[in-house]
């Protein structure tokens, strides 16, 4: 399998695991709050990744890259989950999932604007097809909109924008160090940011969870944080940002599928057809019979990416 194909498969695995994390989060969110849960999730993930980095002697980001790596960590592991959770207080899960699926389109636009990735009709068509698949899979829930749902939709688009910028800006740093060490440092920065937010807004208190609840929190830390985001960074180091980002469209479909199966409800045709459409969109965007994926511009690898 080519380097590009390995990257796409890693991204798909990351987004599939992310879908199961949505179901796990729904299971425990009633007994805690989003910021505290995220602190535990990324704290456990970071605590697992750092010893692995040390054991494998993976190269850490260069000292000159540390400020940018920390800012990217705050963007993806603090701002992204904060906006994600805040959006769902104003809109439905289905509408939020559809808004999040704009991340591949935003990634493609950002990559083209910054000269990181070429904007092609094939990639744009694949992204739009995958987004249509998400809408089809979630069509039953899109009609149920609370008042002022547009606010939540905009917040979720903001979260998608954070993810898009992370996808574009982080690739150079991943390639200069290693996916494991880059993810560990970014997760630590984001976890610290969320911890500061949690301490500033509420008294310190452990979540009131039973044994099953703590097992789910452990799952979120091990699988939903350490493994999921390592695979995401790994993918960014091996294929283009858009081909990584388009896998996000799998996330809400997988979450809906697992949620439906766990609740014992029948799987309807819109979900299955939507999943097939998402898969077709990913296949279109991830393959180009005319030419291989464009390599990373040399200037972007040899010099730090410019952050605002």
UniProtKB/TrEMBL annotation:
What InterPro entries is this protein classified in?
Answer: AA-Vitamin_Transporters, EamA_dom, EmrE-like
Asked whether the UniProt record includes Glycoprotein among its keywords, one would answer no
Q: What are the entry keywords?
A: Membrane, Transmembrane, Transmembrane helix
| Tagged with keyword Nucleotide-binding | no
- Offer one Pfam family short name for this entry: EamA
UniProt domain EamA: residue ranges? 6-138, 151-285
Major subcellular location class: membrane
Q: At the top level of its lineage, which domain of life is listed?
A: Bacteria
Q: Which residues cross the membrane?
A: 34-54, 66-84, 96-117, 124-143, 149-168, 180-200, 212-232, 244-263, 269-287
Q: Which family would the database say this protein is a member of?
A: Belongs to the EamA transporter family.
PANTHER family associated with the record: EAMA DOMAIN-CONTAINING PROTEIN (PTHR32322:SF2), INNER MEMBRANE TRANSPORTER (PTHR32322)
For this entry, the protein name equals Drug/metabolite transporter (DMT)-like permease
> What is the scientific name of the source organism?
Inquilinus ginsengisoli
């Amino acid at each position: 399998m080519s380097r590009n194909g390995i990257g796409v498969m890693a991204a798909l695995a990351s987004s599939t695991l992310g879908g199961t994390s949505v179901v796990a989060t729904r299971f425990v969110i009633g007994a805690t709050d989003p910021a505290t849960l995220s602190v535990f999730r990324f704290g456990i993930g970071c605590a697992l990744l750092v010893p692995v980095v040390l054991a494998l002697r993976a190269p850490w980001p260069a000292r000159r890259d540390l400020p940018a790596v920390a800012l990217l960590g705050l963007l993806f592991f603090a701002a992204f989950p904060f906006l994600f959770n805040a959006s769902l207080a104003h809109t439905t899960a289905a509408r939020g999932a559809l808004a999040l699926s704009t991340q591949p389109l935003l990634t493609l636009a950002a990559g083209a604007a910054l000269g990181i990735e070429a904007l092609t009709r094939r990639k744009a068509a694949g992204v739009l097809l995958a987004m249509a698949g998400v809408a089809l899979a979630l069509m039953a829930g899109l009609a149920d909109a609370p008042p002022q749902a547009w606010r939540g939709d905009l917040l979720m688009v903001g979260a998608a924008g954070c993810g898009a910028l992370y996808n574009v800006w982080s690739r150079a740093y991943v390639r200069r160090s290693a996916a494991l060490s880059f993810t560990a440092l970014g997760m630590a920065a984001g976890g610290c940011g969320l911890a500061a937010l949690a301490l500033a807004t509420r008294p310190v208190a452990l979540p009131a969870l039973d044994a099953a609840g703590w097992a789910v929190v452990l799952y979120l830390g091990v699988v939903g944080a350490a493994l999921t985001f390592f695979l995401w960074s790994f993918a960014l180091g091996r294929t283009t940002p858009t081909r990584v980002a388009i896998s996000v469209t799998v996330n809400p479909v997988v979450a809906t599928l697992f949620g439906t199966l766990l609740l014992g409800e029948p799987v309807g045709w819109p979900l299955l057809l939507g999943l097939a459409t998402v898969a077709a969109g990913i296949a279109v965007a991830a393959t180009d019979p005319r030419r291989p994926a464009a390599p990373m511009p040399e200037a972007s690898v040899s010099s730090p990416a410019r952050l605002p």
